[in-house]
Design brief:
The complex is a heterodimer. Chain A is of the alpha/beta class. Chain A has 31 helices and 41 strands. The longest helix of chain A is centred in the N-terminal third of the chain and has 19 residues. Chain A is globular, with a radius of gyration of 28 Å. The chains are: A alpha/beta, B mainly alpha. The interface between A and B is large, with 39 and 41 residues.
């Protein structure tokens, strides 16, 4: 590496320091309208100024509109207008439930928090859970029952469905099929099974496009029966991940895993007696889990199978030094290690992992087995294959699709749509009138989970009741109610059905108490599955695994993954998630073909080129993104884009990766060819904007370096004398708010960003505006690369406002719209701001965001519901930025004062802090020496961003620590 | 005509003598006009045309605080139930009205909207009198808990047949108390009293209560704006 290259870099352009990059960075809000750059004459300037003063004057002369107060007719007992209520419920993704607390303002759900009592959440949420509240109010949701595309009603639908059932009933249900996603809901499973008992010839199919197919097949291969695996990362010294992205939300229990893993990392960083965990990961594309890894083995997805085979050959048989090193480390940590296989790796890899965990004595310690959480675990791929075959054969008369979107996301080689067209009566129930609904005779709106009574099981089997916070906005019904129609109980509510199930299964006469407690807590006590000792896993023949990689012809490989933001496409129409920068490449509003720089050179493509990818005769065209850390000869593409009937937000953006995906290469395939079609595709990417340039914003060291120089994060030249100031230092008599962000825990998952968006009414701006650097997120997560272009280390750094004690923004505001509070908050006063943007020019951290247009939607009525009533909705021409959740600070202070007590540590939890699964963010009072944040700031790893500028930031960071294996250290 | 010609010939003054006085007068007049404009603008801005002070608004029912509070002696909190616990003081649900009015004045024509609301389940829609801008966050409970009486801001509602506001609710008005709360604080047990009179020694009592109730002078912008 040349000496003038940055140590930490964010993009290839920065690494190469191109002229374009310099120009982009130096212009803070780039791409202004061209006439701003025109030499404007003095006369013209005065004319415009005069006109704007007049217009401003005129527009300020509005009278406050008349407002009405609408009290209740009969006020519910618990409800106090002005104070929010929290209800425990659960959100299910691909069937697996996670407990949440939903905040309700006068019956209006506004914010999702994690349920601290729920084992899969422990109070944390992921970005999708935070964003789910926006989906509730999405005006594009299906709003009416339709028959052949025309508006109909529930009455006619019920008649039609019951008629079809009766016809099928003559042949014991023959030809009647139900298609659902993965079901863990005990009530729904019972309803379907009862239906099947009555109509034994009917069939129930399950299919989730990004479900746990390999995990289930792997357990079957190892044990001959389905078993669920739970990992205890808090007990693991050595973790070997074979393409397992267990810290990202694609894995059930990931929030809990992130919590356990970070707890362990934190303990090791704070206490020299705790051994730091070591994480090895082998993967083809950089993942958030990969960013936490101490050793990142870059290899193709097929290569991961080869690497697994290498591990399977054992200590002396292993070919690669990496495998030998890993095996040695595992050997030294019997009973305290975890080998985990990726959701998308072949079942054989999973089977091997079960065997090696048994051999290492990890079972019962770090690896726990339980019964499967799925109500009816089955091979979903053969299930959908069977369904399509029967449909094609004309054996399906009625197909009832409960949720899901198979026309869009079923494997491409099945030609689901062609087969579907042969079904006589096609019924679809879903949140959206999507691609599948378009080809169904009947579409009925489904209720959102915040409108539903239901239940579900978490990753460890813990059952939760899903309770509604609001009546269905668009008259939607739950799957339970649709099944009730089939059971001739169309008038039975989902509530009665769910309650009835649990009552029937409850022992004792205290059911009412049990039900109330279960609803209140959000978990049903004692329902987590007990640990099970598995039978001995079948011995694994290394050759069988090796053949997975070996039989594949050499050449380009393609890897399919759910999108890091919108997942399998269920969440595509959620604008918060669309505008959430993807952790690895900070891209918004798009998916892309990830390729390594070496392969890009080899195939003659570069970022922004549109290529046509061909796999087994199927083609799709998408833009290329050169991804540092991507394996050579391996492309990664993501699902969830290329939608045609998702809604106004998602239609027509990105390309549809499902069109390439065959059943025999669900997650990865070889024999791909790419052909460059055109160039110049414009991405909307946030990685260049808001840069702090080369001022060491990120600091990391290995444990060895840390022990040698505990002050590494704060070298002498970065320190500034405490009293270096022209002004006398302010004395903070009451509170002194501050924040500490632990870079050693942060996985870059973006939950904080969306939590902030939800809490603070932050608008979305759209792809064009993001491309101009105008996205509005108050809390961004910067991503840094360190090291060589091909295989760098990847780091994340959340950056909210630093609330500098000597805030540079405050000095330059001509109207005192940004000032300092007596408690050290850097206040932003919207009603004073005139939009000069001087503050943002002067902010070295680039955390200030400006409303260039009226970004907040003031017209779409349904979206008013999602707003937090405790935070102003900003208008055009106003600067905004992180306030440390001032509404939460004020509310906690008022509560404390009313009780005549001081504010306790932990009373105030900012939205980002509350969401963070890794507990990387801690907020509190620095004047209280015993507060968590004060203690964290006394740690040696504490450093401030650009501290040498003497801004005295209140937000500081704890430097990252790595624990590489000395045997494997490069160079 | 001839005089003018003569004047021109003798190169008389260009301006008439009176111009001096005119100039003086016009300077004063302009200043007065400017001052007057400013004064008028100020007066208009502070006047009820803009502030709605002392302007009673039309309501679905001509509800009289004078009758309910002054004559009947009903406590504020009987209807404004959440004033001690929430930012919003609370407006009574129709049920509260009907608690009494199903018995007394049960057939009064003027109360028909109330009965209709109770019958149909459709809420009454009251016009807001005290309407802060949307970027201001006011919390009733903390003010009441710290010894700020209802009548300090809302005036003698027990004497209002129709409700109107007595203060502008301008920021200037808020901040006057926030800067120096001692002048308006009263003992907690007097908060809901309509007839409370500030004593002669308010400065003394206020200072003592400010200390006792741990009242802070909160003038940070984010106290109210967020």
């Amino acid at each position: 590496m040349k000496s003038d290259e940055p140590l930490y870099w964010r993009s290839l352009e920065e690494l190469a320091s191109t002229d374009d990059f310099r120009a982009f960075v130096e212009d803070e809000f780039p791409n202004r309208t061209p006439d701003w750059n025109d030499p404007e004459s003095r006369r013209g300037f005065l004319r415009v100024m005069g006109a704007s003063i007049l217009l401003v004057g005129a527009s300020a002369c509005t009278r406050q509109p008349k407002e009405v107060i609408v009290p209740y007719v009969r006020q519910p007992e618990e409800l106090i207008p002005g104070n929010p209520l929290f209800y425990a419920t659960a959100m299910s993704v691909a069937g697996i439930a996670t407990g949440v607390l939903a905040e309700s303002h006068l019956g209006r759900p506004t914010k999702i928090e994690g349920n601290p009592e729920h084992p899969a959440s422990l109070g944390a949420t992921d970005a999708a859970m935070q964003a789910s509240v926006l989906t509730l109010y999405d005006p594009d949701r299906s709003q009416t029952v339709t028959r052949n595309g025309s508006i109909s009603g529930w009455g006619s639908f019920i008649t039609a469905l019951v008629g079809a059932r009766d016809v099928a009933g003559l042949k014991k249900g023959l030809g009647f099929r139900i298609l659902t996603g993965t079901v863990t809901s005990p009530t729904l499973a019972t309803q379907i099974q009862n239906f099947l008992a009555e109509f034994p010839a009917a069939k129930w199919h399950q299919y989730d496009p990004c479900g746990r197919h390999s995990v289930r097949s792997g357990a079957m291969a190892a044990f001959g029966k389905p078993l669920n695996t739970i990992y205890r990362f808090d007990r693991a010294d050595v973790i070997v991940s074979l393409d397992a992205d267990f810290l990202s939300s694609t894995v059930p229990g990931s929030l809990r895993y992130a919590r356990d893993y970070s707890t362990r990392r934190r303990a090791a960083a704070e206490n020299p007696n705790v051994a730091p965990p070591r994480l090895y990961i082998a993967e083809n594309a950089p993942s958030v889990t990969g960013s936490m890894a101490d050793h990142h083995f870059r290899m193709t997805a097929a290569g991961v199978a080869g690497f697994t085979a290498d591990l399977a050959r054992g200590g002396t048989g292993a070919a690669s030094p990496e495998a030998r090193g890993v095996l040695k480390d595992l050997e030294a940590h019997r009973g305290s290690s975890i080998v985990i296989a990726g959701e998308h790796q072949a079942p054989q890899v999973h089977a091997f992992v079960h065997a090696i965990n048994q051999a290492l004595g990890n079972v019962g310690k770090t690896v726990i087995y339980t019964d499967p959480v799925e109500a009816n675990p089955l091979d979903e791929i053969s299930s959908i294959v069977d369904l399509v075959k029967d449909m094609r054969d004309g054996a399906v008369e009625t197909l009832l699709i409960l949720g899901g979107n198979p026309v869009y996301d079923a494997p491409a080689d099945l030609s689901f749509l062609d087969a579907l067209k042969r079904v006589k009566l096609r019924v679809h129930s879903g949140l959206y009138s999507n691609e599948t609904a378009a080809w169904c005779h009947w579409h009925v709106p489904e209720a959102h989970y915040l409108e539903s009574w239901s239940d579900g099981r978490a990753y460890d089997g813990t059952a939760s009741i899903v309770q509604p916070l609001i009546m269905p906005l668009y008259g939607g019904k739950t799957a339970h109610e649709v099944m009730n129609i089939l059971a001739n109980r169309a008038d039975q509510s989902a509530h009665d059905t769910v309650r009835g199930y649990w009552q029937a299964n409850h022992k004792g006469d205290d059911f009412d108490d049990f039900w109330q407690i279960s609803l209140h807590d959000g978990v049903i006590a004692g329902t987590s599955f007990p640990e099970k000792l598995p039978p001995a896993a079948k011995a694994i023949d290394p050759a069988a695994i090796a053949s997975l990689g070996a039989t594949a012809p050499a050449g380009l490989e393609i890897v399919f993954r759910p999108d890091p933001c919108v997942g399998d496409g269920t969440l595509s129409n959620n604008a918060w998630l669309q505008e959430m920068p993807k952790p690895q490449n900070k891209m918004t509003w798009d998916n892309a073909v990830w390729i390594s720089s070496k392969s890009a050179e080899h195939y003659g493509v570069t970022t922004g080129d549109v290529v046509e990818i061909e796999l087994k005769g199927r083609k799709v065209a998408g833009p290329v993104w050169i991804m540092p850390g991507q394996a050579d000869e391996s492309l990664t593409i993501h699902f969830g884009y290329g939608r045609t009937r998702a809604g106004k937000v998602a239609d027509g953006i990105g390309f549809d990766a499902y069109t390439l995906r065959p059943t025999d290469a669900l997650w990865q395939g070889t024999g791909v060819s790419i052909r460059r079609k055109s160039d110049g595709y414009k991405f909307a990417n946030t990685q260049h904007t808001q840069t702090m340039e080369e001022r060491d914003p990120f600091r990391a060291a290995t444990y060895a370096e840390f022990h040698k120089d505990p002050e590494f994060a704060r070298p002498e030249e970065k320190r500034v004398a405490k009293d270096l100031s022209l002004f006398p230092l302010w004395e903070y008599k009451q509170h002194k708010w501050g924040m500490s962000i632990d870079l050693n825990s942060c996985t870059g998952c973006n939950a904080c960003t969306i939590a902030c968006q939800s809490e603070n009414n932050i608008p979305v701006v759209g792809k064009e505006e993001v491309a101009k650097g105008r996205h509005m997120n108050w809390l961004r997560v910067d991503r840094y690369f360190k090291g060589p272009l091909e295989d760098p280390e990847m780091y994340f750094q959340p950056v909210p406002c630093m609330h500098c004690e000597d805030a540079l923004c405050e000095l330059v505001c001509p109207v005192a719209a940004t000032v300092h509070s007596a408690e050290g908050l850097n206040e932003m006063v919207y009603n004073r701001c005139v939009g000069t943007r001087y503050c943002s020019n002067n902010c070295p951290y680039k955390v200030r965001r400006f409303n260039f247009f009226l970004y907040a939607d003031w017209n779409t009525e349904s979206l008013f519901g999602v707003r937090n009533p405790d935070v102003s909705v900003r208008s055009r021409g106003v600067m905004e930025k992180c306030s440390y959740c001032i509404q939460r600070i004020n509310s906690a202070k008022i509560d404390a004062e009313k009780q005549d007590r001081p504010v306790k540590d932990g009373d105030i939890v900012t939205a980002c802090q509350q969401a963070c699964p890794a507990q990387a963010i801690v907020f509190g009072d620095l004047n209280n020496p015993n507060s968590r944040v004060a203690k964290l700031k006394r740690q040696q790893r504490d450093y401030g961003l650009l501290e040498e500028l003497n801004t005295r930031p209140r937000t500081t960071y704890l430097a990252r620590l790595r624990n590489p294996n000395p045997d494997l250290e490069k160079g | 005509m001839s005089a003018l010609v003569t004047g021109l010939r003798s190169m008389a003054q260009i301006f008439h003598r009176s111009s001096n006085s005119l100039a003086k007068i016009s300077i004063v007049a302009v200043l007065m006009l400017l001052g007057g404009t400013v004064w008028a603008a100020y007066k208009i801005n502070a006047g009820s045309f803009i502030t709605d002070v002392e302007v009673a608004r039309e309501q679905p029912v001509p509800f009289s605080h004078k009758h309910h509070v002054g004559d009947d002696g009903i406590d504020c909190r009987y209807c404004h139930t959440s004033v001690e616990t929430s930012s919003f003081a609370g407006l009574p649900p129709t049920e509260t009205c009907m608690g009494c009015h199903s018995q007394i004045w049960a057939n009064a024509e003027v109360l028909e909207p109330v009965r209709a609301s109770f019958r149909t389940g459709k809420s009454l829609e009251w016009t807001r009198i005290h309407d802060l801008p949307d970027f201001v966050y006011f919390n009733h409970s903390i003010h009441v808990n710290k010894g700020i009486g209802c009548s300090t801001c809302h005036g003698r509602v027990d004497q209002m047949p129709l409700t109107y506001k007595v203060n502008t609710l301008y920021m200037q008005w808020c901040i006057e108390c926030h800067r120096n709360p001692a002048q308006y604080v009263r003992p907690r047990d007097q908060v809901f009293s309509m007839t409370y009179q500030y004593p002669e020694n308010q400065s003394e009592l206020g200072a003592r209560l400010v200390k006792e109730y741990k009242i802070q002078s909160l003038t940070d912008c984010v106290t109210c704006h967020r």
